Amino acid sequence: MSVRQGDELSALLREMELPWNRAFDGGPVVVAGKPPQIELPGGLRITLLSPTPRELDRLWDHWEKQLMKLRAPMDEAASSSVPADDEIDGDDADEGEEPEATPKATRGTPEELDLEELADRRYRPDRSVANGSSIAFVAEIADAVVLVGGDARADVLSESIQNLLSMRGEKRLTLDAFVVPHAGSERNLSVELLQLLACDRYLFSTSGARFRHPDRVTVARILVHGRSGRTGRPTLVFNYRSPETEIWDDPELQKRYDYRTVYPEGEDAGIQVVLREDS
Q: What is the DSSP letter of 35?
């Protein structure tokens, strides 16, 4: 959502007098200390993992600057200073830093892939303001557990999950599925985060059209460091079959690294994931 869209949505909520973050007493959705838990009708429990007050403070500074530009007289000079889509920042590069060349799914062949080498590449965390403010959470109903990563930063997720595990007296967070943050950007999934999880099913929500996600490094980290010990065989679930995702459907690559893939049937995008047959 752009700054302009966020401002318009806020105005619409006030105009229609709709509930605003009722579970947080009308305040911001934020993790301040222990991850807050919200019980919803029907038995669904949400445990918030991101954002933190630190990240919201960073967002506020940038948000105010963008709002001032949007509300200024739209002469030629003013309009040229506002990004075309009003975004606070770009994909996930550090401010003032050129993004490092990343091996993408459109380069090379399955035979050339060395997942151990990719998985152990230096981790460069996401520093973008917008992604830092992303909402991420654990959703639980009956015995089914899903981690929805949004666009959240790996360090924020790791800190909140560690606090959650401490609260529960557990060493790893057992999941039925993990919606990988930021559509599989390598800057939003660290080995440290993966090692806090016990998960065999990883979901990628992206067509790859804009930022060409998921990154190969991300998938490599999952296949090398994300094995939970439950089944020992990770499943990669894609909601699009695209040049960025199709490479992982290679039978020899699957045999070499012992994993499987799931794609939409036919040419339509979208996929339904059944967490548990009895859920």
A: P
The predicted-structure confidence for 71-115, as pLDDT tens digits, reads as follows: 775 544 444 544 444 555 544 444 434 344 444 444 568 888 899
| Residues 6+ away with beta carbon under 8 Å from 217 | 102, 103, 118, 119, 121, 186
pLDDT for residue 73: 56
Phi, psi of 78 (to 5 degrees): -70, -45
In angstroms, the CA 22 to CA 114 distance is 48
Tell me how far apart the alpha carbons of residues 272 and 237 are, in angstroms, rounded to a whole number: 10
Token pair of 148, please? 């929805």
Domain that holds residue 241: 31-50+105-262
Domains identified in the chain, total number: 1
**Rounded distance between C-alpha atoms, residue 45 and residue 168, angstroms:** 15
Does position 262 have pLDDT exceeding 50, yes or no?
yes
Q: What are phi and psi of 137, to 5 degrees?
A: -160, 165
Q: Which residues, in sequence order, are CB contacts of 160 under 8 Å at separation 6+?
A: 31, 35, 48, 49, 50, 52
* 220-260 pLDDT tens trace: 999 999 987 666 789 999 999 998 899 999 999 999 999 99
Tell me if 7 is assigned to some domain.
no
E strand or H helix at 50 = strand 45-50
pLDDT recorded at residue 71? 77
Q: Which residues pair with 145 in a beta bridge?
A: 140
For residue 137, the SS3 value is strand
In contact, 69 and 81? CB cutoff 8 Å = yes
